[in-house]
Amino acid sequence: MKAKWRIVLILVILLGSLLILSSGTSIPAQAYEIRDLSWIKIPDYSSSDFFPIEKTIQEIMTRTQNEVADTPKNPQYLLLKWSDYIRYIDTGMVLPDRQLDDLIYLVTVDVIRRPWEVPSRSLGGLINPEAAKNDPALVEHFTSHQDIYIFDAKTGEALGFGYTPYVMILPKH
Amino acid sequence: MRIHLKKVLKVLLFILLILIILPSVIFAANNFNYFGKGYIYWNTTKHWIGGAAIFANPNPDYVVQSQAANHTLWVNTNNTDTSWNEVGYSKGWYLNGRWDTTVRTLYYAWCYPDGTYYEYRSSYPVGSPGATHSYKIVYEYGAWRIYIDNTYQGGSTQPLYAKYIQVGLESLYYGNSCRVVYSSGLQVNEDGVWKGWSGNLSSIYQSPGYHFSWVTPLYSSNDWNDY
Fold it and tell me: What CATH number labels B34-225?
C-alpha cells in the first residue's frame, strides 16, 4: 500500500511538472487595455485583384503558435489606406515613405508575448531580454498583447509589423 | 517486488530531472542576446535631438538569428532607454507570414513610451553588399524624423530628448559569421548643431566573441565577430 502511494506521488509530481513546463511561464498576465475602434467605418475597397490574405494569416497563426507560450487567437484583418492607418492605428506616425492612398491589409493577432518572446530588435539597443526577465518593471513594460502586420494589398509584400501592449478591435467596413 | 519498485522510482525521478533541466538549458541557450555596439550617453541633461551614422551593407552578407538587427542606429527619446527611433539594415524580413532570411532590406522603427513597437520596411533601395548608406534620426518640426541617404523615411511623435545614441548589431546566435560591419561618421545633434561623438560619455556592449572598437577614439568605429 505504501509503495503504491509513492508511485501515485511521483506521478502527481511528474504531471505537475509537465503542466508547469507546458505553460511556458509562471508569470500571470497583467491587465491590458482594449481599444475598441469598431465604431470607425472604413470604406470597403475590396477587389478581386487584391492579394488573397487569408493564407498568409493562417501562416502567421501557425508560426506564432510555435514562437510563444500563449495561444494566438482572434485574427482580424482590414483593408484600408495608409492615411487611415496613421489616423487610427499608429497615431504617432509622421508621414510614411509611401503614398497615403495606397491600400494595405492590416492584420492583428491577439497573443501575449513576453520580452523574451519578441524579436530582440523590438527591445531596442539597451534592453537585454535575459536581464529583463529579472526586472518586473521591464517585463510589464515590454509584454505585448497584440501582434500587428501590414501587407501591400496588391502584392502581399510585408510592409511592417509591430507589438502593442493593448488589444485593438479593428474598425469595420 | 521491493527492488523492482526502487528501480521504477529511480527511473521516474531521472525522467523528472530531465524534464525539468533540459528545457531550461535549451531555453537559456536560445534566448541569450549577443551584442556588438557602442553608444554615448549623458548623466546631466543635454539637449540631444538627433544622431547619425554611416554603414556599409555587410559584405559578405550574413544572417543574424531570431530577427535581430544586423546593424542599426538607435536614438532614444523621452530621456529614457525604453523608447526610441531606429533605422538600419536587416538580412531578413517577413515573406507572407514567415520570416525569410534571404530578404535584404533597409528598415525604420520606433518604440513609444508605452512600449508599443512598430517597424516598417523602407522603400529605399537596399543596394548591393558593401554599398554605403548614411542614416540619420533628428527631431524636426515637432517629430523625430528618419532619413536614409538624406531621403525621408518616416518618423514618430515622441518627447524630447535623446539620452542615448547607439550604433551596432545584435544577435541571438553566437555562431553567425559577421566578419565586417563598419560604422563611421558617428554624430550627435545637440541643440541643432551636428558634432562628433567625442567629448561625451561613452560605453561599449560586447558579448564574448563580439568586438566593438573605435577606429578613431570616440568618432568612428568598426565592429565584428571574430568567428
Answer: 2.60.120.200
